[in-house]
Write a structure and sequence with these properties.
With about 190 residues, the protein is α+β, with helices and mostly antiparallel strands. It has nine helices and four strands; from the N terminus they run αααβαβαβααβαα. The longest helix has 19 residues.
């Protein structure tokens, strides 16, 4: 019996490894189809969806595995509107904060950016909309008590997640992307 279970585990692992190497899997599809949505509806994000998005942020890579971030989850519409004007009920804001350094250098923005992007991709993988904001950070940092930013941390980014209006055409609603030829340079 143990041998059969071991073989099944090996077969499932091999199948998942093969699936991850397919160019059109769920992760690459989520990344390639994602855009920063603007049209949200009031259908709330479920606790299960939020938990999964946050767990993906926790698992983001960071230098020396320092994980220099804290996530502040805001569901209260009044508080959300203190950061972003156009939120609707049912949205969730996740403020990503990085550790304050002792020498006055800014928080680890790269690691915080990786965590934010991981949650952005996870939200899209769950069929939610997501949008990353940088501009509200100064306002949030000036009102750390209101937003409950932990002591010793500075807000770096804000991730908005929510259900989106399914009638909005994602292709025409998204800002056009530059072509690969404009961005990628191969050393010859």
């Amino acid at each position: 019996m143990k041998k059969i279970i071991s073989l099944l585990v090996v077969a499932l692992f091999a199948a998942s490894k093969l699936y991850c190497q397919i160019p059109d899997n769920c992760i690459t599809s989520a990344i390639l189809s994602a855009y920063s949505e603007k049209a949200y509806v009031t259908e709330p994000v479920t606790d299960q969806q939020l938990d999964l998005v946050l767990r993906c942020g926790v698992k983001a890579p960071s230098g020396m595995n320092r994980q220099p971030w804290k996530f502040t989850v805001i569901k209260d519409e009044t508080t959300m509107k203190e950061a972003i004007n156009n939120v609707v009920a049912g949205n969730v804001l996740i403020i990503v904060s990085g550790t304050d350094s002792q020498d006055g250098t800014p928080p680890d923005m790269f690691a915080c950016g990786l965590a934010t992007e991981s949650m952005f991709v996870a939200a899209h993988g769950l069929g939610l909309g997501a949008r990353i904001y940088g501009s509200p950070v100064a306002n949030i940092n000036s009102k750390k008590d209101l937003f409950q930013i932990p002591s010793g941390y500075t807000a770096v980014a804000v991730l908005r997640i929510g259900n989106v209006d399914k009638n909005v055409d994602a292709v025409s609603a998204a800002t056009p992307r530059k072509s690969a030829e404009e961005i990628i340079n191969y050393k010859k």
